[in-house]
Design goal:
The protein is of the alpha+beta class. It folds into two domains: about 1-45, no CATH class; about 55-170, 60s Ribosomal Protein L30, Chain: A (2-Layer Sandwich), CATH 3.30.1330. It is built from six helices and four strands, in the order αααβαβαβαβ. Strands 1-4-2-3 form a four-stranded mixed beta sheet. Strand 2 (about 95-105), helix 5 and strand 3 form a beta-alpha-beta unit. The protein is globular and about 40 Å long. The N and C termini lie far apart (about 40 Å).
Length: about 170
Amino acid sequence: MFKNALTFVCMVALASTLSCAGKSKKEDKSAADVAAGEVDSNISQKDMSFDPAGSDSGKIQGLTTINFDYDKAALSRDARSTLKDNAQWIKDHTNVSVQIEGHCDARGSVEYNLALGERRAKSVKSYLASLGIDGKRLSVISYGKEKPIANGDSEADYAQNRRANFVPLPK
């Protein structure tokens, strides 16, 4: 496995070097540059005053994570109420778009949870659109069970991880 990964990294670096032969280093960063930790200066110049953990951080007043029932993507009455408040926050912050992240608990396969997380994020996006939010300002991504916020095996831990959270992004 390690040998295959190393071969892949070398092939990507070689391909990047060959494809960038006519470009200056300032114009295009290679995969090796990015892997070495160099940051695109255009990205770092975009000022964001929001926590990159999004609503999971609890630090973005007016933008709140919602939770789901086990193995469900349907929105509860509480989730819909919270989403109405989130919709108002999104309407008030016209300078950002919002990424909706779908998450699951630790039970189930990786593939199943990625699909469930996507269904959860899409149901949130659909509901926000029904509240008047332009769908072009909303994107969805599923992390399945890969980014838990509670690391345990109790039902309370599982319930915290079954969520959709919201990450403001610059337009």
